Amino acid sequence: MVFADQLDVRDPAQVAEIAHDIFAEMRKQEALFAVEPDYLSKVQLPTEVKDTSRAFLVEWIIDVHRKFRLSAETLYVTVFLIDRFLSVKAIKKS
User: Fold this and answer.
1) I want to staple 5 with a disulfide (CB 3.0 to 4.6 A). Which of 16, 81, 83, 87 is the partner?
2) pLDDT, tens digit, for every residue of 22-62?
């Protein structure tokens, strides 16, 4: 058991006994749902959503995340969902 898991062993909600298995499965699934690094140039129109637009959106989300003191996982999932959506659907600024 990893040291970090040993710290959580007293909290049943942390499921420290099977944490390694959970993370191994998550790693496998991560590859299935990965977004290509250059998805913006492939899916989005050049005059609409650019990498700077995405950067401003993510920066704003980070500010909201800090203001409401949300968990790190919330931030990661939010950015993942934005990237996943932008990788399959072309968006217009209007």
Assistant:
1) 16
2) 889 989 998 898 999 999 999 998 888 889 999 999 999 99
Q: Do 30 and 41 have their domain in common?
A: no
Total domains in the fold of the chain: 2
Residues 6+ apart with CB under 8 A from 48: 90, 91, 92, 93
Does 41 share its domain with 52?
yes
Q: How many beta carbons lie within 10 A of that of residue 40, not counting itself?
A: 19
Q: Which residues fall within 8 angstroms of residue 38, CB to CB, at 6 or more apart?
A: none
The CA R_g of the chain, rounded to the nearest whole Å, is 18
Task: Kindly report the pTM of this predicted structure.
Answer: 0.71
Measured CA to CA, the distance from residue 75 to residue 94 in angstroms comes to 26
Same domain assignment for residues 47 and 72: yes
Structural domain of residue 4, as residue ranges? 1-34
